[in-house]
Amino acid sequence: MSKSTILVVEDHRPLLMGIRDILETAGYSTFIASNGVEALEVMEQTLPDLIVADIMMPALDGYGLYERVRNHPDWSSIPVIFLTSKAEQEDILRSEALGVDGYITKPFDPNELLVMLRTLLAQQEEKLD
Q1: Which of 10, 73, 75, 103 has the fewest Cβ atoms within 10 angstroms?
Q2: Domains annotated on the chain, with CATH
């Protein structure tokens, strides 16, 4: 199997680059975007295996991005992890109600992200088999 492709969507550039570095060091191929609109543009060119997205971003936030991904016939099965500073119970419950595949709050442990990523990618692969 070729290495998985991850789209990272984060408006804080140092954190965006840090997440990209963590994922690439772990062997993943990454694409980056600084907001939901850029993410959709990237996805028109390259289909990721999984998306890691912040919620609070300009132009199109994580909720809007998630909605657009789920409503696109070719993208609807792509797992989405929210990596966000929104740690309130109502934010977590809203995300769960939407069907988001994973929710990690900042500051985060890179190992937590990698374990969640591996689990979701393995589940995705099982669905395709």
Answers
A1: 73
A2: 5-124 (3.40.50.2300)
